Inverse folding.
């Protein structure tokens, strides 16, 4: 199962530049293709494509969205146990443990690179205790980023 | 990629030829051998030729995540290294946590197997695109922490940081008690598998994959994990560190024992980590003292006080959680001197460098913890080697002429520090001890065997087999001998397996302490259930401490079904585990091991009996227990070799 690029592709390279698995190839201004062996189904290609030229594994066209509106993970540290599943799940290393809580000495995960986050939602999907929700960052966060 | 928890492929690396090849495995292999240690046993039994030299090109080293690693289950982030042990000549495995395990699957593999010997030092690098052997000249000679820092920075320049498993100088120098390190101080320490890696001139395995790890029913996985998470959060206030000694003393004095609910141990682990046992265990008779010759009387409250659990949490700056662990029994501690911080020493380290050597200098223990972690040497075996040498010195078997002038007396921490610094460098008398006590006996001679405590060459852990007959049994009967992580009576109490598995002994809520030293047939049945369950734990990448929470809270069988879609009963899984266990025993028989010769040294069995302390007067009737245990698996009662029926159940010839 993998994403695929439709005939609407104009070869702008946006998807290939962002793909965290280096699964997309193609020359500039020519049709790009996704190698299903390497695709990790993060959907970044679809979100960034200005021509809505990407289909998900079920053949549905993915609607692109301005990157500043992409949802980012929000962490509920009351539910979180610090198990690190989300840190490992992030394909671009944008989640890391922050400073430990002074009392419990437990370090909780944080989004350390707002700009780098691809909004794949793997962190939220993999969290066994549903301590992460994907939400649109506030305007101030987006601007700061 | 499958949607059954496993990736469906293994990677075979031949260092002699410089080749790296993928192999697709059929579902039937996973359905029989699960993953992790089970998959390792399947590959190694079939592919290591009979009589292969553990340090030669034919030996294979496997790095394996578990079947459940990365599937949304909790406490399942551990990985196994497997190979023929150069320390014992038997099946060898070592287990480690940290964050390396899921990365093996993220690179697309359920196991990475390495054979051959490289003509020059190399490291194996794998990411989504690249699989290659790279020159390790820059890192050869570096310690394990330096190696990891260097490779994290230089092996991959962009994206997320790679994960590294490596050897230190001890592995490079083929020390038979060396291990494999990850996360700058977590160790797959046992069985001497660091020496195998060193003999192959493989400095490190560096992984940076991004593949998704899928499960058959992810929502069900989450539901089961949430039950486990609920129980792991229960954390009422508990006694102070030194008060644990009184809990231990109470357990020593009372004639009856409450069947222990492992939730209590979880509470201690979360508060302190394994150092919670530093005072409790010696008091109750669980810790071997003074090279197993001493007793709780020699290591009383005032001696153990310097390493009371609070000492460790006071200098702990942050908890260390292995991947997918909600408890976080590890930690990073600050210290003064040459090194500024170290992974919180484990109970095993504290007692093997402490009570076993009569050393109450906790600063020296912190320092040696980091020295040994950086060298990549097993702290348990190193402590045993030192304690053995001290007793040899005290008994006049060796003198200062042998020890490079070191005054090796009980508790002489300066001498202990200097000796271990020599061991990790293989310098002078350090060379004599750098391969463990069995080799040290060969090098020293002069009847030093009397003072060597080991099982088939493997130094046992800091759990006294005279206190818990389960430890005596598992030290002696397992295919990888001398190991404390495979079973004990106490573990069985905490697993509460009888609540989910049919036909195994059920323990009452309270029992007379003396009863567990009798009825070897029942103890063998308990031992067999322990071995089967731990086989599943090690095949799934699960954590022993997680399993202590109890089988109804840590729902391993349900997780396996939800991850794979197999829908097997707990008893069916236990039967599969029995077959994997047989395969490991068959591995030993294939390589000429006589199982009875793996029996632990007499001293650890109460032969002669101790005249004082918590284990006074106790002797473990090990031979009878071993025979009953072997019978449980369909192995010959006298020799421990698997019978025809047991062998017919395992698949050979892959």
């Amino acid at each position: 199962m993998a994403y695929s690029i439709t005939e609407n592709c104009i070869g702008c390279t946006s998807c290939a530049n962002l793909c965290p698995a280096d699964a997309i190839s193609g020359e500039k201004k020519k049709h790009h293709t996704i190698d299903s062996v390497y695709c990790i189904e993060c959907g970044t290609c679809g979100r960034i494509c200005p021509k809505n030229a990407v289909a998900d594994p079920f053949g549905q066209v993915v609607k692109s969205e301005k990157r500043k509106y992409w949802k980012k993970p929000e962490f509920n540290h009351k539910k979180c146990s610090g198990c690190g599943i989300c840190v490992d799940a992030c394909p671009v290393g944008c989640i890391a443990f922050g400073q430990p809580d002074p009392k419990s000495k437990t370090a909780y995960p944080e989004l350390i690179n707002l700009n780098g986050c691809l909004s794949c939602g793997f962190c939220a999907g993999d969290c066994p205790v549903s301590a992460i929700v994907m939400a649109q960052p506030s305007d101030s966060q987006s601007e700061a980023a | 990629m499958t949607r059954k928890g496993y990736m469906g492929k293994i990677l075979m690396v031949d260092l002699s030829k410089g080749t790296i090849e993928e192999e697709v495995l059929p579902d039937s292999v996973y359905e029989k051998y699960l993953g992790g240690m089970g998959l390792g046993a399947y590959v190694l039994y079939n592919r290591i030729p009979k009589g292969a030299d553990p340090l030669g090109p034919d030996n294979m080293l496997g790095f394996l995540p578990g079947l459940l690693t990365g599937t949304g289950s909790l406490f399942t982030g551990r990985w196994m290294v497997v190979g023929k042990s150069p320390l014992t000549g038997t099946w060898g495995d070592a287990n480690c946590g940290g964050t390396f395990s899921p990365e093996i699957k993220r690179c697309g593999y359920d196991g990475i197997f390495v054979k051959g010997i490289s003509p020059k030092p190399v490291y194996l690098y794998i990411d989504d695109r690249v699989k290659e052997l790279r020159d390790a000249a820059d890192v050869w000679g570096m310690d394990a922490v330096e190696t990891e820092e260097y490779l994290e920075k230089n092996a991959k320049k962009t994206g997320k940081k790679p994960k590294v498993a490596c050897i230190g100088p001890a592995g490079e120098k083929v020390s038979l008690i060396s291990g494999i390190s990850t996360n700058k101080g977590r160790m797959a320490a046992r069985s001497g598998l660091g020496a195998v890696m060193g003999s192959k001139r493989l400095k490190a395995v560096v992984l940076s994959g991004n593949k998704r790890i899928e499960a058959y029913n992810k929502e069900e996985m989450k539901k089961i994990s949430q039950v486990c998470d609920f129980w792991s959060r229960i954390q009422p206030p508990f006694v102070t560190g030194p008060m644990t000694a009184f809990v231990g003393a109470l357990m020593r004095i009372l004639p009856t024992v409450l069947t222990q609910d492992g939730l209590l141990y979880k509470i201690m682990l979360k508060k302190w980590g394994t150092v919670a046992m530093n005072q409790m265990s010696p008091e109750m008779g669980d810790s071997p003292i003074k090279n197993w010759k001493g007793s709780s009387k020699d290591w009383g409250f005032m001696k153990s006080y310097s390493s009371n659990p609070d000492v460790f949490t006071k200098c702990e700056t942050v908890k260390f959680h292995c991947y997918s662990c909600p408890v976080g029994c590890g930690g990073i501690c600050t210290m003064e001197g040459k090194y500024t911080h170290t992974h919180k020493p484990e109970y095993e380290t504290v007692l093997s460098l402490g009570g076993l050597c009569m050393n109450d200098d906790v600063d020296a223990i912190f320092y040696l913890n980091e020295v040994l972690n950086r060298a990549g040497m097993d702290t348990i075996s190193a402590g045993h080697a030192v304690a053995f040498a001290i007793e040899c010195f005290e008994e006049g078997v060796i003198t200062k002429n042998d020890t490079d002038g070191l005054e090796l007396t009980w508790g002489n921490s300066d001498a202990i520090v200097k000796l271990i610094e020599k061991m990790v460098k293989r310098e002078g008398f350090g060379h004599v001890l750098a391969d463990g006590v069995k080799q040290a006996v060969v090098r020293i001679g002069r009847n030093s065997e009397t003072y060597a405590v080991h099982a088939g060459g493997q130094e046992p852990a800091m759990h006294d087999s005279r206190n818990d007959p389960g430890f005596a049994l598992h030290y002696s009967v397992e295919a990888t001998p001398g190991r404390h992580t495979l079973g004990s009576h106490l573990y069985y109490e905490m697993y509460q397996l009888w609540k989910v598995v049919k036909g195994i002994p059920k323990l009452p809520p309270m029992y007379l302490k003396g009863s567990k030293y009798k009825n070897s047939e029942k103890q063998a049945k308990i031992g067999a259930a322990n071995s089967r369950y731990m086989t599943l734990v090690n095949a799934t990448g699960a954590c022993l401490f997680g399993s202590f929470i109890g089988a109804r809270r840590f729902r391993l069988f349900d997780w396996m079904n939800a991850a794979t879609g197999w829908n097997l009963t707990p008893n069916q899984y236990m039967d599969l585990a029995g077959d994997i266990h047989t395969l490991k025993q068959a591995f030993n028989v294939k390589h000429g091991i006589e199982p009875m010769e793996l029996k632990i040294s007499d001293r650890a069995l109460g032969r002669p009996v101790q005249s004082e302390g918590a284990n006074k007067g106790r002797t473990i009737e090990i031979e009878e227990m071993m025979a009953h245990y072997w019978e449980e698996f369909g192995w010959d009662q006298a020799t421990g070799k698997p019978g025809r029926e047991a062998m017919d159940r395992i698949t050979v010839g892959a």
Notes: The first strand of chain A starts at residue 4 and ends at 5. The first helix of chain A runs from residue 14 to 18.
